[in-house]
Write a structure and sequence with these properties.
Strand order of the largest sheet: 9-8-7-12-11-10-13
Radius of gyration: 17 Å
Number of strands: 13
Largest sheet: 7 strands, mixed
Strand content: 25-35%
Order of helices and strands: HEEHEHEEEEEEEEEHEH
């Protein structure tokens, strides 16, 4: 996490969290979702505006983390901006030399592979579970054919439980008075 973010958190500790305004699609792209986009429907059916500003994307990716409930957020100064996930919290990019990088550019070590009922391939790594980018599936198939990965079948609906993540974070419900 950036030092400037840590300083802002210390200076303003009680800033409310933000929900619904940021989305991560299945290709590792970030989307801003204003009130109009949110009113039009849930992510990813209503994606919003694709972020293209490289420095903003880098800032988001450096300050991207999960909370204790498995809800992923971007720490924007003193405010947590929770992220709507189309698929998983990580999108893996396969490199020509066989390395695997997260959509944030972090090198990971593959521990296991999973295949859902629609043919999507997921990798379990030292960072957690993520979806292999669709553009990298030919290379991934070669790794499976070479028996470097042996995907285990699983239902896509079971991924959040297995990976301990929440696709659509929600604010805590207010407690009813006694």
């Amino acid at each position: 996490m950036d030092d400037i973010v840590k300083a802002a958190m210390a200076k303003w500790p009680n800033v409310p969290n933000c929900f619904g305004w940021l989305g991560l699609d299945a290709r590792g792209n970030w989307y801003m979702r204003d009130d109009r986009v949110q009113a039009a429907g849930a992510f990813p059916a209503s994606k919003g505006s694709l972020l293209r500003h490289e420095k903003l994307i880098d800032f988001i990716q450096r300050n991207y983390a999960p909370d204790d409930e498995g809800q992923w957020y971007f720490q924007n100064g003193p405010q947590r901006v929770y992220v709507e996930l189309e698929a998983t919290p990580w999108i893996w990019r396969l490199q020509p030399d066989g390395r695997v990088l997260s959509h944030t550019g972090v090198l990971v070590h593959v521990q296991d592979s999973l295949l859902d009922e629609t043919g999507k391939l997921y990798l379990v790594t030292d960072l957690g579970i993520g979806l292999v980018h669709s553009a990298d599936m030919v290379q991934a198939a070669d790794l499976v054919d070479a028996r470097l990965w042996s995907p285990q079948g699983m239902l896509a609906a079971d991924l959040p439980t297995r990976g301990r993540f929440v696709r659509s974070p929600q604010p805590p419900r207010a407690k009813k008075p006694a």
